[in-house]
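User: I'll paste a sequence; please echo it back and then give the predicted structure.

Assistant: Echoing your sequence first, then the prediction.
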Amino acid sequence: MKNSSLIMEIVNTGRLFKSVFIKTAESRTKSDIKPSEKNALMELSGHKELSMSVLNKKLSVSKQQLTAITGSLRKKRYVERYTDDKNLRIAHVRITNEGRKALKDTYSEAERKLTDKLECLTSGERKELESSIITLKKLLEKMNR
């Protein structure tokens, strides 16, 4: 397969993946969490805390967008923001227990929606999809180094 054919398959598969999985998981839910806020909470949930600059790099958003995202999450009491004791110019953010609960509820709702989507597949097809996604993840991680 030539690279141009491979690239077209990647683009088409990416669009389809987004339509089937991402849009389904992020479709309007009972949750008050926007997709950008959910991404921030997911990133914060894996760390004790992150500086705003590190979170900015991990989320690949502008500083203005990150300020709006964290501001909204603070209003909802899902994150805490505070300055570094040693350097007042550095701001840190950490997820709160309320934020962890909201993220868990969002995951549960997305899991239910995605489970419904997977119902059209046979058991064998679900195993094949899982294996394929694991392989794809490994290859993407290799390319992302």
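The CA atoms of residues 5 and 11 lie 10 Å apart. The radius of gyration is 18 Å.
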